[in-house]
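Cross-posted from the bioinformatics board.
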Amino acid sequence: MDFFPLWLSLKVSVVATILTLATGLPIAWVLARKRFTGRDVAEALVVLPLVLPPTVLGYYLLVLIGRQGVIGRVLDAAGMELAFTWRAAVLAAWVGSSALFIKAAQAGFEAVDRRLEQAARTLGRSGWSVFWSITLPLASRAVMAGTVLAFCRALGDFGITLMVAGSIPGLTQTTPLAIYDLVQSNRMAEANALSLIAVATVALLLMGLGRLARLRF
Amino acid sequence: MALTLEVRKTLPGFTLDVSWAAGDEVVTLFGPSGAGKTLTLQCLAGLMRPDSGRIVVNGTVFFDGGRGVDVPTQERRLGYVFQGYALFPHLSVRDNVAYGLRRLSASTRRHRTQEVLERLGLADLASRRPQELSGGQQQRVALGRALAPDPALLLLDEPLSALDLPLRQALRDDLRAVLAEWRTAAVLVTHDFTEAYRLGDRIVVYEDGRVIQAAPRAELLWQPASENVARIVGIRNVLHGTVLKATADRIQFRWREQLLEAVNSPTRSYLPAPESALAFFIRPEYVRLIRKDRGTPDPGHHMNLMSGRVVGEADFGTTWTLYFKLDAPGGPAQGDYDLEIEVPRLVYEILEISRDRHWQLSIHRGSIHVLPSA
């Protein structure tokens, strides 16, 4: 049996989750704490990937990063290729899972009593320090829950990945795509094994999340 | 410590426009809920930006609307005790107290934290979480956290309102002791006049976004600036009469068909014209009932004599409050009675007031306090 899809899925999901954390935390914080014009639009944009058909998302992403796309041309000039590489799979997983993370983290930040942050400021701490010492620790459960959800979503992405990264065996074929391929070519035993491993991984992660939610500070 | 504050801030449906000053003392901002007290504290701490005005603490300009100065909260270095305390739930008592000491070296920080914990009697609780403490202990942690960085000024927002009544009274005296011991100038917000009076050297009375009087606490109690202030600080028997004659040291007036005489305040000698309206108040505990077993009252000795009946009463344990209606014709001044009178329980029992309802009473002219008209 070929374990490459499993290994690729893991790599893509880990990198995508790190990317999600780095971009999602500031966005979630801004949506939770700031009032600005265009906030409604920003909120809608964040949720959009969650409700659009994955193929539509993938199509637009491909338009952007393909050879003729706005981003694609810039990358091409820099000698980089994105479409139909494993990095495109990361991009797909990131786009598909960010919304889940941002909504969870935003709810976590909103639940933090603002007076605690104000108290921290009266004690001489700047905004950055207040975020790391008060806001983030108090929202940590929601942030971790969001991270696990985002990771699981990244592991399971099919449609967006197929559109932007293709399903090139040994190159961009992640586990869900591999399972589809195996079923198409009637290799049921292998499809079954791969599916079981995928289910087990996600189940373990979700159980860990459940335990996390019961943890006290 | 010297503080001058002048703040204007408009919010939807509310405008704050206040100006007051304070020295090295405890100032209480007193007034009903929604009068702008907390908003003032937030402006002082930089948590809320005034529309215009000027805030200066110890010569440092924290805010100046005209010159665009607005020092951020974290650089103002003021201690702030929040309503409900706002302790950090994920940190121990020790880490809460140490939170504002980050600029110190590790060893100095440890030393200072320990010192604060010990002075406030919190050393045994140092590794507990705030949610494991009683209300009183939480208050001490909040005080310790705010005092640890040695702020020039301590701000306290309703520090006792989170507590139950019996504990609240004990902790009021506790808080007074801490403020006296640390000798920190403080601004304290409360809507409870007893608290304002017990804790403040000076009281600033708020009403509807404005300051209606700022004075040392005794002056506020005995010389309220207006009828409004008298009502807000809970003074009973605020009444209205008609001036007959006013001189520098006496005011004669008519009230409920009675001729009364009051001392005019020599410091502000208020001289209203004859026949003008006059507001005054009589403290319930300063009304004297005249004993019937000592012969007829002597008008030379008993001034401002009146007679009437007790039409209602309330038992407050150590004292009784009597609701007294004059025999004079016409409607009573305060609903179904004219005067509220407070007598000690012993007097109530000796005079057998529960049985005997008709009394003569007298009020010394020094016990009738004339209120300047607004």
